[in-house]
Amino acid sequence: MPERTPETHVIDFRAAEHLLEARDPRGAIRLLDSVIAAHPENTAARLLRARAFFLAAQLRPAELEFQIVLEREPDNAFAHFALGRTLERANRPEEALRHFRLAAALEPRPDFIEAARFTHETGNGES
């Protein structure tokens, strides 16, 4: 195997993004494993790998990666939302709701607000 360089890690990261878009999460995970091994501090790569784990239905690894991202970036609304989806899929609705509410509080996007169940207050889905 050729020596890995910072440039090849960037190429692997970009290729993993494309694989995820093409619905090949396992291929993305394989590429991201080497990127994260070389750059464990790379939060963007960890977030992408967490998304890939989620799409591959590997919920525990997805949860762990999202938690690492949130330890580094506690105000990352998307990571809270995605962790909420992961916990929801793992049949842990109370924990999921907490992260949905944090996501909605950090970034009041309609999908975050709906997941946080804040829309029931007006009865018509509007805030």
UniProtKB/TrEMBL annotation:
Q: Which domain of life is it from?
A: Bacteria
Keyword check for Nucleotide-binding: no
Pfam families the UniProt entry points to? TPR_19, TPR_2
Protein name as catalogued: Tetratricopeptide repeat protein
Q: Which SUPFAM superfamilies match?
A: TPR-like
* PROSITE patterns associated with the record: TPR
Presence of the UniProt keyword Repeat in the record: yes
Write out the ranges of the repeats annotated as TPR: 77-110
Enumerate the InterPro entries for this protein.
Answer: TPR-like_helical_dom_sf, TPR_2, TPR_rpt
Name the UniProt key words of this record, in alphabetical order: Repeat, TPR repeat
